[in-house]
Amino acid sequence: MSPIAIHAEAISKSYRHYQVLHELSFDLEAGTCYALFGPNGAGKTTLLKILATVHRPSGGRLEIMGRDAVADRAAVRGQFYLIAHGSHLYDELNAVENLRFALGLRGINPSDREIKLALDRVGIGAFADLKSRYFSAGMKKRLAIAKALLVRPPLLLMDEAYSSLDEKGIAFVNQVIREATRAGTAVFMTTHDRAKVAEVAHRAGVLRQGALQELPLTALTASHELF
Fold first, then answer.
1. Domain 1-79+153-227, CATH class in plain words
2. CB 3.0–4.6 Å: which of 5, 115, 132, 197 could bond 89 by disulfide?
């Protein structure tokens, strides 16, 4: 049986009198890609931020790689990597400097060769010395993926995984997801692109009015709307 990367038990989140998430429960096993869908405002990003320990749940229990994600938050943060919807880069640093700074915060010191290989693999090796302020949104996403390749986390979180990417970039993301899950990494991602994620997802769910419903994978390629 595969280890459990995420154990969520009755997770709820409220902002004052508005409840965003209603007692969500699910497990995500190592080597599994879970795709989360839902209309705007359904709580997808809120759930992802809870999984990333950015927000605390209002109720319930969350474990990441067997650790309590609230009580043991500092230790848990070393067990996952989040590719967020925004770039979270330092504009005045170039690609290599951004990588070294971000990885250094995690205690990772890759060699020059490892960084070059990562940048080449995501297709921006020619721009290694360019300040990230001049990067397009797609290039920034590719740089974020390069970070993930160097971190090699047991859990990868992705918010709108395909945003800002062209067809070649989307295909590359799916290649990264396939390789990661084969190596035992768990992937939890939000997306609106059913067709593309159907190529890599092992499980899927939809958030409706704060409640999580598991979806059959056949729903990803069906013609009817999910929500």
1. alpha beta
2. 132
